[in-house]
Amino acid sequence: KMKESLNERQRYISQLGEGGFGTVFSGYRRHDLFPVAIKHIAKDLVINGELHCAPLEMVLMVMTAGDPVRENAVISPLAWTDLDDEVLLIMERPEKCMNLFEYDNGQIDEGLAKEFMRQLVEAAIQIHKAGVFHRDLKLENILIQFSDARYAGTAELMLTSDLELFSGHFNSKPFSFLTGTHCFRPPEFNHRGTYEAGPTTVWQLGMQHCENFLTQTIKRLKVSEDCKKFLKSCLLVNPDQRITQEQMLCHPWFRSSVLPELNNISSANIAKLSLQQH
User: Fold this and answer.
1) Range of the domain at 31
2) pLDDT: is 166 or 231 the higher one?
3) Which conformational region is residue 140 in: left (phi greater than 0), alpha (psi within -120 to 50 degrees), or beta?
4) Is 138 known to sit in a ligand binding site?
5) Catalytic residues
C-alpha cells in the first residue's frame, strides 16, 4: 500500500521521454503542486556488462546532488520505491528551462559561452568529487534554468540525470566499454581502446564549447585568442597533455574581459519557455 501511495501522490501530465532504461513523465506532487519528473525504471539493468539493481540510479543521484533541491548544478532526487518489476523514481523537474541545444539552436556569444562553461566545469568537478563520472556531456543533457525569462544573463546550468551512463566510485583504472554519444568519444579510445574519467570529461566539455559556435574547427572560430587557446588545451589528442578540470577554471580565458551580452532572449526561446508551462 505504501508503494502504491507514492505513485498515487503524483499527478501525471505527459510523457517526457522513453528509452531502454525506462519511461519518464512530467507531473506534480498532489499535496503542494511541486513540479516533478516521474521515472519508471526496469528492475534489473545491465551497465558496462554488469547487472545492477535499479536503485543504483537513486544512489548515484544522491551522491551527486548532495544538497537539497536546487542548491547545486545537478537535478535532485526526491523519493523512490520498489514496484515489484520496476522502480519508481521521483525527481525534481525545474521549470522555465530548456536544454542548451534548444537555446538559440546552440548558438551563443563568447561571453555567455564563458559563463556557461564556468558553471559546467564547476558541476563536473562536483560530480567527480562525489565519485561519479557522467560520460555523456552534450548540449541535450545540459539544462538552462531562467530565473527571469527576459534576460539570458540570469541563466543557470544544470546537468540532467541520465545516470545509466554514470559510473559510481570510479578510480584511476581506465574504462574499456564505451557508452554515451559516439561522436563525442575521446580520441584515446580509438588509439588505446581505453579512456579515463578526467581527460574524457575535459574533452567532452571542449567539444560542447565548439558546438556552441557551430564549428569543430578552432581556426575558424570568431572568438578571442584566449578562447581559442582554452579550446586547444581541452582538445589535445594526447589525454596526458590535456588540461585538467581544475586547470580549466584557472585559465586566462576566465579572467579576460569578454562579458555575456544581457540582451533579451530571442522570441523563439521565450515561446519555448511558454510552451513548457502548459
Assistant:
1) 2-92
2) 231
3) alpha
4) no
5) 136
17 is in an annotated binding site: yes
CATH code of the domain containing 191 = 1.10.510.10
15 with 131, same domain? no
Answer with the residue of higher pLDDT: 202 or 74.
202
pLDDT of the residue at 10: 80
138 and 205 share a domain? yes
Over residues 106-142, the pLDDT tens digits come to 567 788 888 888 888 988 888 787 777 777 787 777 7
* Counted domains in the chain: 2
Does 115 share its domain with 180? yes
Residues 20 and 50 in one domain: yes
Query: Residue 266: pLDDT above 50?
Result: no
pLDDT per residue over 35-60, tens digit each?
A: 888 888 776 654 555 555 544 555 55
pTM of structure? 0.71
Radius of gyration of the chain (CA): 19
Last residue of a domain, one of 61, 92, 123: 92
Residue 21, annotated ligand binder?
Answer: yes
Residue 153 has a pLDDT of 41
Residue 273 within any structural domain of the chain: no
Question: Do 120 and 164 lie in a common domain?
Answer: yes
Does 4 belong to an annotated binding site? no
- 207, 25, 92, 95: CA torsion to nearest 10: 70
Residue 125 contacts by C-beta under 8 Å, 6 or more apart in sequence? 245, 246, 249
Is 263 inside a domain boundary?
no
Residue 19, annotated as binding a ligand: yes
CB 96, CB 273: distance < 8 Å? yes
112, amino acid identity:
L
